[in-house]
Structures are given as structure tokens and as C-alpha cells.
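Bumping my old thread because nobody answered last time. Still need a sequence for this structure:
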């Protein structure tokens, strides 16, 4: 009996150690495998999917989701959420178009105004969340309604054409054959990945998401971090709005409808826990690619646009279930 007990006791700690060490990467590995599988299937089933032009289009669409997703990842890691992204992007596109035409600010002035206001409305949402403890869902829901309404009111729901400008041509075009918006997305990804992993600010975000009260007792300025988090998402939404306006050639109050859904979907699919305290920029990056490839493939396959939402809804639910299972396994390992 003693011999049998020792024979079976050995592998268990090794197995638990493996899960503890690599469990948090299982979602990212699974996502990468799913993306590879998608490319194989869609490459065979969807005509033109693997063409260079289509892949550049996937990159361009990924940028619209990804730039905002970097900021939203940190917001969700901190235990909050921002659902105002879609209307914020649309309003920013209207601001830059109005500023460059009707308000005579010039291209540079219009872009700067848009970015400053984006930072400002995000900071306001963060201040309301931090100062008065208003749930972030309610705060950003209000912002969602205000910005969306303003964007449509200021334009009568009509596009506002951008003036001819080399700046807008560059922002809406490409550099060395790669869409400018995609390059901006990749640069910002590197910046945010570094901030999250190697800076005191990044560690503060994770600490607040894990336990805000304990983080406050440890001396962290929770209010300042929360304001900065939401200000950052506002700024990133404004950047996305400027790039989208340059790409479309106009500001549009109806643009980016439902973008907040895709952004949050990419973050959740990437493994960020909605309860806060856990998540990675790499996971979100893979989530952005996954969502973009799925959307592109469904279009090329001729799937009904309304049914595309059904497919994406199932993907979100499946991703949440996978995250719960992985989180329970890794948490169980730490407790053991």
C-alpha cells in the first residue's frame, strides 16, 4: 500500500505546477491555434481571403478595434468597464471634420482639439467614477448617450466631408504599403504592453483590479489611476475617430456603431477577466486579430449581416466560459 501511494503521489505536484506556471497562457495559445485554423479554413473556403489586398483590409479593420482595445484592456483589468467607445469614435470623427472646415481651425488645430477633448471627456468619466463611486457602466453609458446624441445633432446625421490635405491622405492611406492606422495600432500596442508589464502604473492597475481597498491601504492613489485610465480610453477613441474620418474622407455621427461591442469582445476573448485583476495586452491583440478575421471571413462567405451578430454573440459566450474554466484551474492550483 505504501509503495502504491508513493507511486501515484509523485506526478500530481508536477501537474499542478505545470498548470500554475502555464495556465494563464492557455487562452493565448488556444487563440493563436484558433487563428491559424481560421486562416486554413477561410483560405480554402473564401475566395480572395489570402490575397494581399484583403489581408491589408483585415489589418485596417483590426486597427479600428485594436487602438481603443489597448486602453479598454487596462480599464477592465482595473475592475471597471468603458462602453462609450463607439459614440466616442463617431463624435471624434465629427469634431475633426467640423474643426478643419466650418470652425477654420486648420487640419492641425482640428486634430489637436479632437485629441484634447477626447482626453477630457474620458477624464470626466473617470473622475465621476473615482470621486463619487458611480459605477463605471453607468458613467460610460451616460457618456455613450451624450456623445452619440451630439454627433448626430451636430451633423443632422449627415457626413461632414474633410478638406483636401496631405495629412488626412497620409492618415487614411498607407506607409510602405502598410495602412497607417495599422502602424499606429502596433506602435500603441508596444507602448501599452510596456506600461502594463514594466511600470509602476501598470502594477497599480492590476493591484486595483485585484483589490481596490487593499491597494488604497498600500498607498496607491486609486482616484488618480482611475481618472487616468478613462482619460486614456477617451484619447484612444479620439485617435481612432481621426483615423476613421481620414479613411472615410468625412466625419460621420453614425460611424463606428457597435464598435464598443467588438472592442469589449476582443478584450474578453483575449483572456481579460471581467472581475478585474487579470489580463494581458498580448491576449487582447490576439482577440483583435481573431474578431477581425472572423468578421472578414463572414463577409467573404456571404453570410447575412444580421446573422454575423449571432455568430459573434456565440463567440463571446464561448470565450467567457473558457476564461472561467481556465481561471478556476489556475486559482485552484494556487490554493492547493
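Sorry it took so long. Here it is:
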Amino acid at each position: 500500500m505504501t509503495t502504491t501511494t508513493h507511486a501515484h503521489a509523485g506526478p500530481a505536484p508536477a501537474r499542478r505546477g505545470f498548470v500554475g506556471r502555464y495556465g494563464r497562457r492557455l487562452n493565448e495559445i488556444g487563440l493563436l491555434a484558433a487563428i491559424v485554423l481560421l486562416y486554413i479554413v477561410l483560405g480554402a473556403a473564401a475566395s480572395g481571403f489570402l490575397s494581399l489586398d484583403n489581408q491589408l483590409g483585415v489589418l485596417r479593420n483590426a486597427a479600428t478595434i485594436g487602438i481603443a482595445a489597448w486602453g479598454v484592456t487596462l480599464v477592465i483589468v482595473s475592475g471597471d468597464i468603458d462602453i462609450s467607445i463607439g459614440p466616442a469614435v463617431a463624435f471624434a470623427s465629427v469634431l475633426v471634420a467640423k474643426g478643419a472646415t466650418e470652425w477654420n481651425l486648420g487640419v492641425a488645430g482640428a486634430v489637436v482639439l479632437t485629441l484634447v477633448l477626447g482626453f477630457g471627456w474620458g477624464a470626466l468619466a473617470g473622475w465621476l467614477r473615482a470621486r463619487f463611486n458611480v459605477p463605471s457602466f453607468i458613467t460610460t453609458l451616460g457618456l455613450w448617450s451624450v456623445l452619440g446624441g451630439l454627433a448626430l445633432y451636430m451633423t443632422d446625421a449627415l457626413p461632414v466631408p474633410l478638406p483636401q490635405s496631405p495629412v488626412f491622405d497620409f492618415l487614411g492611406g498607407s506607409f510602405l504599403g502598410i495602412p497607417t492606422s495599422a502602424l499606429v495600432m502596433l506602435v500603441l500596442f508596444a507602448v501599452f504592453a510596456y506600461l502594463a508589464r514594466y511600470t509602476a502604473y501598470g502594477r497599480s492597475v492590476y493591484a486595483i483590479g485585484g483589490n481596490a481597498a487593499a491597494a488604497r491601504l498600500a498607498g496607491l492613489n486609486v482616484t488618480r489611476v482611475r481618472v487616468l485610465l478613462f482619460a486614456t480610453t477617451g484619447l484612444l477613441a479620439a485617435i481612432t475617430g481621426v483615423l476613421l474620418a481620414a479613411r472615410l474622407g468625412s466625419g460621420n455621427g453614425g460611424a463606428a456603431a457597435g464598435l464598443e461591442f467588438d472592442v469589449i469582445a476582443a478584450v474578453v476573448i483575449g483572456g481579460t477577466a471581467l472581475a478585474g485583476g487579470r489580463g494581458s495586452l498580448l491576449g487582447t491583440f490576439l482577440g483583435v486579430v481573431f474578431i477581425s478575421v472572423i468578421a472578414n471571413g463572414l463577409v467573404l462567405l456571404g453570410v447575412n449581416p444580421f446573422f454575423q451578430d449571432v455568430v459573434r454573440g456565440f463567440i463571446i459566450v464561448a470565450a467567457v466560459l473558457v476564461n472561467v474554466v481556465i481561471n478556476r484551474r489556475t486559482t485552484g492550483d494556487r490554493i492547493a
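Residues 1-21 have pLDDT under 50 and may be disordered. Let me know if any region looks off to you.
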